[in-house]
Amino acid sequence: MAVRATVSRFPIDVDAQEASGLPWGLTVTPFAAKDENGIGPAYGSNGHLLPRCENCYAYFNTYCDLDQWAWNCSLCGTLNGLPSDAISRYSNPQSIAEMTSSFIDLEFPLDGSEEEMTQARPVYVAAIDLSSSEEFLELTKSALLAALEALSPGALFGLITFSHKIGLYDVQGPIPVVKNVFIPPDVESSLSLELEDVMPLLQFLAPVETCKDRITAALETLRPITSWERSAGAAQGMDSVLMGGRGFGTAMEALFNYLGSEFGNTFALARVFAFLSGPPDYGRGQLDTSRYGEQYASKRVDADRALLPEQTPFYKDLATIAVQSGVCVDVFAVTNEYTDLASLKFLSIESGGSLFLYSSTDDSTLPQDMFRMLNRPYAFNCVLRLRTSTEFKPGNSFGHFFPDPQYENLQHIICCDSYATYAYDFDFADNSGFSRHSGDQPVVQIAFQYTVVVPPEGLSNSEMSSSSRGKHTLQRRLRIRTMQFGTAHNINEIYDSVDHEVVLALLVHKVILASLEQGVREGRALLHDWLVILTAQYNDAFQLVQYKNGNKSMSSQIDITFSQCPQLEPLPRLVFALLRNPLLRFHEEGVHPDYRIYLQCLFSVLEPSSLHCGIYPALMSYSTPDTLAYPRHSLSRAALITSGSPIFFLDAYTTLIVFYSSTADPSIPFPPPQDCLLRQTINKVKQERSITPKLMFIRGGQDDATAFENYLIEEQDVDGSGFASAMGFVSFLDDISQRVAEYMK
Q1: Residue 611's pLDDT is what?
Q2: pLDDT in tens, 550-562
Q3: Which one of 433, 449, 565, 606 is separated from 334 by 20 to 30 angstroms, measured CA to CA?
Q4: Strand runs (DSSP E) across 240-370, as ranges?
């Protein structure tokens, strides 16, 4: 569980917090195996015996004062009695996780019989769009073949297709058999019969280890619906038969109800991989894609606002059905046409899944992404709770979870991998703030309760009865991190403790929220105003602007680069980069609304360092493929020219580019050899990433370098077309300086 705060020394009170101009909060990556310093938790058992405070329900931790019979809660100060079993356990503290570490992970006893515990077979279902092309189906087959290699023994796999009808595949017999049911074309009608009546679920879900060859054979039979339906019509002497239609909504609704009948019996979590080649346009949940087009210019409608909200609650409601059925949905959209991901995204993010967008089949990383996603550990049925000491409280929470309807600051996460990150901001409980004199320090406690599926080889022989050998088991665990923070006695101490990457993470969450509610322009304005106010507060705090004749002598004296505070120096560049990012660029600049939604979903779950990379890519130079010249350049042409290095490596999180300058010595091997330092760096970056980045090699003067040059944003106008100009970052700083001068008058 990695936790990073915007400031490591908290503001002392409301006035200090407002005067700093900084967001106050933290990010948490609950299922990360280690903390932000690379240290793992202390593991233990009997999580249900961990004492809890009678007043605030916080868990006992190493910051609590403990005597023989009682303990003081480190969050609220309440004196709690110790139960007799805890007294005897805590008499030997070295063997107890919660006595040795403030970061613990305890096993919880599961409810139910051992037989129920072992019914934990992982279930995976591929739902494939047949209203598509041959290229799309070839890519999907490649992805699913990669997925089959990643699935653990004991997993169950189902194959379903959709178009104007649903196809269910039975791969447990000698040859694959498909049974079809037609989808009603209108928005209101459901299927005429349940999928269970078409094919029993346990006939549909096949064991991977015995049926892998037949699953592969079934995949090979898939053809786009339009081609063979048309040819069949032509063979019967009909002039033209246009079947087709993408009945995605009806198919998903029927599938969730189908799977839900065995939730808690055959499986504890089912993962559905939905492969889409375009917008749902048939049956329930069909979307009107005509809202995307040239009509905005004529109607004077703000496209940056109109295309961000969903046009129907259907998929949000469908996500609720998925959750109730124990289903997590990953949506893989392979399309360059408008698909309205603004409506579809809820199906994935609210069911605990991911949303992937690939603009073409040619260079798609879909198979690698599938393999990577299935190969990493995940937790499910998770509950995340953040508690604080009494002087402050959690404010807004951000991330792909849904809040508990009954309890405040309690979030449910259906499925959580080791990369998924969530954010919170803080407010003071009242105007008194933290005590300046007492020794009590602010405390944050994050509790994360989750379930994992443990494969048979993950259990010792002593843990397995003879009847459960070869079966997966469920394990319920409780992970707790308790942290103490210092308080800042003045604004310099706040500024010196800033983590600019976490500040960026909270800003990104806030501008995404503002964009969704009020449009992209409002999101940009919010970000711009924030930087102006922060710069003004900083100049005021350091008394950098002098008074002459009772008036402040302005912009020439304003420090817009935070030269007195190294921790704040990166922020103007990060804000400029965020304003240049497709997340906040205008519709008329050619930003596709689906790509914007994809970035919103991606950036909402990234941990701060990865997000920094996505917003302001890392650019480093090499004098040879084996020699690093400089580890970090600004994103400008000037930096490239002045460095004199022949090779540059740019990491933009989703894209990696190796660029050889036009003046590079022809004897330097291109592309770089597999055993060189640069390749090792590339491979390490790819290995640590949650998605598969696209890797490009570009030779300056010979290849089209546009893809690389587009990332050199510092000469680009912050509000304009993105073409290189004399404007760019320097002009942006001048504008901020003038705005600060006006603000401080």
Answers
A1: 96
A2: 455 554 678 899 9
A3: 606
A4: 270-276, 327-334, 355-358
Compute the Cα dihedral for 447, 448, 449, 455 and give only its sign.
Answer: negative
Asked whether the beta carbons of 669 and 625 are under 8 A apart, the reply is: yes
* 3-state DSSP percent of the chain in helix, strand and coil, to 5: 35, 25, 40
Residues 290 and 311: their CA atoms lie apart, in Å, by 12
Amino acid letter, residue 28: V
Residues 339 and 318: their CA atoms lie apart, in Å, by 17
Rounded to whole angstroms, the Cα distance separating 66 from 168 reads 60
pTM tops 0.85: yes
Letter string b/e over residues 687-713, b meaning 16 or more CB atoms within 10 A of that residue's CB: eebbbbbeebebbbeeeebebbbebbb
How many Å apart are CA 590 and CA 596, to the nearest integer? 11
Lowest mean pLDDT among 67-76, 92-101, 298-307: 298-307
**For residue range 391-421, what is the model confidence (pLDDT) as tens digits?**
999 999 999 888 888 888 899 998 999 999 9
Q: Does the structure show a pLDDT above 90 at 151?
A: no
| CA atoms lying within 13 Å on the CB side of residue 551 | 6
Enclosing H/E stretch for 341: helix 341-349
> What 3-state class would DSSP assign to 445?
strand
Work out whether the CA dihedral 168, 171, 173, 178 comes out positive or negative: positive
Angle (nearest 5°) at CA 261 between 459 and 321: 100
